[in-house]
Predict the structure of C-type cytochrome, methanol metabolism-related.
Amino acid sequence: MPPTVTKAIFLLLLVNVAAARADGAGDPAAITSEGGKYLDKDGNPTFKIGPDGKVDYYSYAGFVRYSANCLACHGPDGLGSTYAPSLVDAMKRLSYGDFLATVAGGKRDVSTAQTLVMPGLAENKNVMCYIDAIYVYLRGRADDAIPRGRPSLHDDKPPAYAIAENECMG
């Protein structure tokens, strides 16, 4: 990854961690929208589900990116596996900043019974360029707003999402 992209991702993480809540994900209600990304009252990315079950594009893209990058360890739909915890449960207590820090920097839990290690993914564009979408999807799963499986109805890709994706992926 070019140094400028790595620096940009790191700065984005610092800004987002500083602005994030410290008491878990909080109220997921969408208050505002910026370029197709919904935000809660604290400015954290969140999901938006229509009355017909249609999800916002970030929730849909989050499912796709989660399935490609996280499912192998954390299991289908964020429910956990024999060697990685349920992210649906973890998202009930993780703030946005804690989520970003864990994904970027990794985590190591060692006990007498087991050693659990999540690698830091800060250099993985397939994760970090889509970190908000993955967060939104998992937040919706943790809130029981997004059911298991691929969302069948979703908004179209917002132009701002496509621009950010192209800039990040190069």
Observations:
- The helical segments are 3-19, 57-69, 71-74, 87-90, 96-105, 125-128, 131-142, 159-169.
- Residues 129 and 166 are 9 Å apart (CA to CA).
- Residues 13-23 have pLDDT under 50 and may be disordered.
